[in-house]
Amino acid sequence: MSSISGSQSPSDRYQAAAHRAAEAKTYLGAFARSLDFELDDFQREACRSLQEGRGVLVAAPTGAGKTIVGEFAIYLALERGLKAFYTTPIKALSNQKFSELAAKYGSANVGLLTGDTTINGEAPVVVMTTEVLRNMLYADSETLGDLGFVVMDEVHYLADRFRGAVWEEVIIHLPSEVQVASLSATVSNAEEFGAWLDTVRGDTDVIVSEHRPVPLWQHVMVGREIVDLFAGDTTFDEIAPQIPDTEVPDLSDVEDAVDEAVLPAESRKIAAKSLVTSTARQAVTGPEFEVNPDLLAMARSESRMNFNGRFGHGGRSRRRQDRYRDERQSPEQRSPVRKASRPQVIESLNRQGLLPAITFIFSRAGCDAAVAQCAASGLWLTTEREQQIIAQRVDEASHEIPADDLDVLGFWGWRDGLIRGFAAHHAGMLPTFKEVVEKLFADGLVKAVFATETLALGVNMPARCVVLEKLEKFNGEAHVNITAGEYTQLTGRAGRRGIDVEGHAVVLWQPGTDPAAVAGLASRRTYPLNSSFTPTYNMSINLIAQFGRVRAREILESSFAQFQADRSVVGLARQVRGREESLAGYAKSMECHLGDFTEYARLRRELSDAEQFAARDHQRARKSRVADSLTRLIPGDVITVSSGRLAGHAVVLDVDPNAREPRPSVLTSDNQLRRIGVHDLDGPISPVTRIRIPKSFNAKVPKSRRDLAASMRNAISDEAPRARRNSRHEDFGLGSRAQDQEQKITELRRALRAHPCHGCSEREDHARWGERWWKLRKETDGLVRQIQSRTNTIAKTFDRVCDVLSAYGYLETDDAGKVTISTDGQRLRRIYGEKDLLISQSIRRGAINDLDAAELASLASTLVYQAKREDRGLRPRMPSVALETAVDIVVREWSQLEDIEEQNRLPLTGEPELGLMWPMYKWAKGRHLQDVLSGTDLAAGDFVRWAKQVVDLLDQLAKIPQLDPRLARICRESIDLVRRGVVAYSTVA
C-alpha cells in the first residue's frame, strides 16, 4: 500500500525527476501532456500501476481528482486498441460521465448503457451502471470482446446493503486479463479491500491519499455569524489522522493464533493475511485539536438557560405547563441565539463570498420549502444577464415536456427559483429537472442548492461551501445522528479544484448543539467498507449454468464477504483460547470435598433453565391463542382492546389470510385507520358485536370513516356489557404440558437437595464460582459457534439457495449427481431484481397469461415498487378482474416462497406492493400525469423513477428465451405504453 505524503528529501526529488523524464516517453507522459494541469503524486502513481499492467484501488477524498485515474485507463484502452467500460452506481452519474467523455473523445467513440437508455453500445468506450455490466457477464455478451479495462467509480457502494453485491459479482467474474481501476472515497480499511482485490484479481496496488487539494475549513453559523469550529488555523488535512510507521507482525505468528480445530488451514492463511494488512490502519492516530472557546462558552450559556428555565424561577404555572406537556415530546430547548432563517443563511454566505453553496436538508419537503421561503423573501442571487441565460436554458431543456404536465410537475415555481439563483435537488424531482439544476450549478449560474444526502452519492456537483442544517436524519425508522463517515462524505463537496482557493463546511447552530461533538465528527475519518454480499437466486443459477455447482461454490467463497468473515475469526479464536484458560481456573475454585460440585452446579443450572422455559412456554401459548383469535375475525366485527396504544373499540375492515402474522386493519372509535397485531393485545379477543360495512365505504375519505365509527358506537351502546375474562387464570391450552414441566421442576429440586454438595458449608461460595463457570462456558461455546458459522458462511448460504431452487424444480440432479438447469431455471437466469424468484414463479403459474398491455404494466409495478412503511394500507380495489386474479397468484406465490425461505434460513423476499397499481394502470391507459398522481402522495420524480423500473422489468421479460411469443409481444406493447411523456423524456444527448 502507498500512502502519499508531501515531504521528500533531495535524493527523493532527484529520483522523481529521473522517473518523470523516463515517463515522458510513455503513454503516461503523453496523457499528462494532454492535461492543462500537473498530475498529483497519487494520480501519477496510480496511472503508473495501470500502465505496468496491474490493477489499482485509489482511495482519496471527494474532489481530490480520482477520476483522472479512470480517464487514463480509458486513454490506455484507446491507444492499445482495446475497449474500456466505465461503471457508475447511479444513472445520473452515468449520464453525466457519458456527456463528459463524449465531449472529450467524440460521440462516435463513447456509448451509454443504463436500464432504460442505449446509445452506441458497441463503442470502444462505454459508460454504464454496474448492474448492466453484471447482466452482460452472466449473459456472456459479445460486447465483452476485446475488453481491456474496467473503471469502477464509487466502488465503496459495495457496502450498500441493497445493491452492493453487484460490485463483488463484477469484480469476481470479470475475465482475468481485464485490468480493474477501483475508485473509492477514503475508507478506513482500504488495505483490507486491496488485499482481497489482490487475491481475486491478481496484482493490485492500493493507493491512499488523505490530502485534499483544496483546503477545507470548518465553521459553525451562530445566528447570522459564521464562527470557526477550531481555535487557530486548522484545516481538514491538519485534523486528519496520521498513519504512523507501525511494526507489522509476522504472518506465521498471526496464523498460529488461530486454532486449527475451529478454522481450516486455508481459511487460517487468508484470515491471517487480511489481519496483517490492516495492522497499520488500526494504529491510526490523530493530532489533538482545540475547539473554539467561544463556541464552548455559547454551549454552556445555553445549558444554564435551559436548566434555569426548567428548575429555576419558573413558578407554578410554568411547572404546570411542563407537567401537562405531551409526554412524547421533550421540553423545547431554549437558546440565547436567534436562529437564522434559510434566506438569511444564504444572504450571510453571499456577503462572506461563500457562494455557490449546497445546503443539505435531510427532507425532500424541507428542500422544497427552502426554495419557497427564499422566493417569498424576495431573494435574488443572479444578475440580469444570468437570468436571461437561465431562462433560455430552462425553456430549451423542457420544451419536449408535454404542456399538460408542467403544472403538476411544479415547473413554474421551479423555473422561478432557478432564475433567482436557487433550486432544490432530491429524488422526488423529475430527472430532467435535476439534470438542469446540476448543469446550471456547475456553470456557476445557480448559486444555492438545497439537497438531500443523495446528492453526495456520486453526482459531480462541487461547491465553494457546504451547509449542514442538522446533524441528525431520519433513517426510515428513527431520527439518528449522522456518522463521521457521512459527515466527511457530505462536506467533501466543498472546494472546487482549479476554481476555489479553499472550501468551507458550515454547521448551523441548533438548540442543544455540542461543539465538541461537531469537532469530533469533523476530525474522524471512520468510514469502513463492509461487504453486503450474499448469494441470490439469479446469481446462483447463473453461476451453476456457467461453472457447475462445485466450481460455483468455490467462486462464492472468494467473495469479499467471506474474506472479511475469515479475518474476524482470528480475533474470535484468540478469545476462545483465553477463555478456556479462565474456565480451568474457575473449575479449580469450585472444587468441593463432599462431592462433584460440577454436577451439582449442572443441576442448579438445569433447574433455573426449566423454570425459565416454563415461563416462556406460557408466554408462547398466550401469543398463539391471541394470534388464533385474530385470524377468526372478519370484516364488520367490533372488538374491544383493553389496553395499550389501541385501547378502546374498533371495527375490523380487512384481513389478509396470506399474512405471516395476523394484522387485521381496523377503524378505531376516533376515526383512525390502524393495524392490530398480537403485541397490541393482553389475551385472546372476540367480537362484542357486528356491524355492516357499506359497499360504498372508502377508508381514504374522512366522512366515510366518521360515519362508520358512529355506526360502531351506536352498535356498542345497544349491546349489553359483557363480563371481562380474567386472562391471568387461563392456561392458554397448555394442559398436560404444563403438568409435565411442573413435575420436571419438582424432580430437579429433589435431586438438588439429595446431592452431597447441598450440605456443604461453603456451598454458596462454590456456587458463585459455578455460576461464573457455566456463564463463561456458554459464552465460549457461543464464540466457537460463531467461528464455525463464519467459516464458509457464503458457501453455506449458497447451498440453502440451491435447496430452494431444487425444491421449485429450477435445478435438476441426474443419477450421476450432476446438477443441471431446467427450462424454468433458464428463465430465471434472465430476471434480475430483488424479487427474481417470485417474478419467475408468477410467470410460471400463469399470472400474466390473461393480461393486456396496460394490466401487465400495473402488475409489474407490484414487483418493483417499494412503498414507505407509513404508506402501506388496505388492499385496493383492482382495475380489472384479470388483474385481481393475477395479484392473487403473485401474493400466493410470495407467501409460499416466504415459508420456504424461513425454513431454509434465507433472507425473506419482500412482499408485493400494490400501492402503484392504479397510477401505473392509468398512465398505461394514456391518462395525463395530473390524473395519474391525483389522490396519491407520489412525487412526479418518484413516479418517473418507478415507471422506468417497470420498463426495465418488462424489457427483461420480453427477452426471456422460450417465452411465449404472444407474451413477449404484450411486454413490448406495455413498454411502449409506459415509456411516453415525462417517462420517455431524457436530456442525455
The major pleated sheet works out as: 9 strands, mixed
Counting helices, strands and paired strands, the structural category is: alpha/beta
Please give the share of residues in helix: 40-55%
Structure annotation, total helices: 39
Terminal residue distance = 40 Å
Shape: globular
**Strand numbers in spatial order across the main sheet:** 1-9-2-8-7-3-6-4-5
Q: Determine Rg (CA atoms, Å).
A: 32 Å
Please describe what this structure looks like.
- With 989 residues, this protein is α/β, with parallel strands linked by helices.
- The chain contains 39 helices and 25 strands.
- The strands form five sheets. The protein has a nine-stranded mixed β-sheet with strand order 1-9-2-8-7-3-6-4-5, sandwiched between helices.
- The chain starts with a strand and ends in a 5-residue tail after the last helix.
- Residues 241-264, 266-287, 310-331 and 722-734 have low confidence and may be disordered.
List keywords for this structure.
alpha/beta; globular
Q: TL;DR of this structure?
A:
This protein has 989 residues and is of the alpha/beta class.
SSE arrangement:
Layout: E1 2-3, H1 10-23, H2 27-33, H3 41-51, E2 55-59, H4 67-79, E3 83-88, H5 91-105, E4 110-113, E5 118-119, E6 125-129, H6 130-138, E7 147-152, H7 165-173, E8 179-184, H8 190-201, E9 204-208, E10 216-222, E11 225-228, H9 236-239, H10 251-256, H11 265-277, H12 279-282, H13 293-311, H14 315-323, H15 342-351, E12 357-360, H16 364-376, H17 384-398, H18 403-406, H19 411-420, E13 422-425, H20 431-442, E14 448-451, E15 465-468, E16 472-474, E17 479-481, H21 484-491, E18 503-508, H22 515-523, H23 537-547, H24 549-556, H25 560-589, H26 597-631, E19 637-641, E20 648-654, E21 665-668, E22 673-675, E23 689-690, H27 702-718, H28 736-754, H29 763-790, H30 793-807, E24 811-813, E25 819-821, H31 823-828, H32 836-844, H33 853-862, H34 881-903, H35 917-924, H36 929-933, H37 940-958, H38 965-978, H39 981-984
Parallel strand pairs: 1-9, 2-8, 2-9, 3-6, 3-7, 4-6, 7-8, 10-18, 12-14, 12-15, 13-14, 15-18
Antiparallel strand pairs: 4-5, 10-11, 16-17, 19-20, 19-23, 20-21, 21-22, 24-25
Helix pairs in contact: 3-4, 6-7, 8-11, 11-25, 16-19, 17-19, 17-20, 21-22, 23-24, 25-29, 26-28, 26-29, 32-34, 33-34, 33-35, 33-38, 37-38
